[in-house]
Amino acid sequence: MISRLNHVALVVDDLDKACHSWQHLLGATVSEPQALPEHGVTVVFIDLPNTRIELLEPLGDGSPVSRFLEKHTGGGLHHICMEVADVIAARDDLLAKGARILGDGEPKIGAHGNPVIFMHPGDFHGTLIELEEVK
Ligand code: CO
Fold first, then answer.
1. Any bridge partners for residue 79, and if so which?
2. pLDDT digits 0-9 by tens, 72-100
3. Which residues are 46's β-sheet partners?
4. Which of 2, 7, 59, 125 has the greatest CB tally within 10 Å of its CB?
5. How many angstroms separate the alpha carbon of residue 113 from the centre of ligand 1?
6. Hey, what domains does the chain have and what are their CATH numbers?
7. Residue in 83, 130, 132, 133 annotated catalytic
8. What is the pLDDT, as a whole number, of residue 132?
């Protein structure tokens, strides 16, 4: 079902400082910040030869990553995302196997304009997994 690792998402409490650390300490190329109000985050992308890192900062009231920061001071690993060819087929297969999908189970459009679903971390020993349809 799964193929490439698409990205690893890290929550940070200060996006400017985090970007500086990745640029200054690691020599990373960091994109311009992109506000995604419908997801409650501001995101930057760091392209690596084999995948990308996303840094997420809370945006607006009730951001889902604000709650994450309350439990993880300063930030931390939020989720990993793997690609699937057909997100609806993946979801139906997972549900048939007894796995849980977050929200109403319908794919949402993610930060890269592709449909995504998130799987319940309780089914993966605490790790939040995103599946993104990439054609
Ligand atoms: Co993601």
1. 9, 128
2. 999 999 999 999 999 999 999 999 999 99
3. 30, 53
4. 7
5. 11
6. 2-133 (3.10.180.10)
7. 130
8. 97
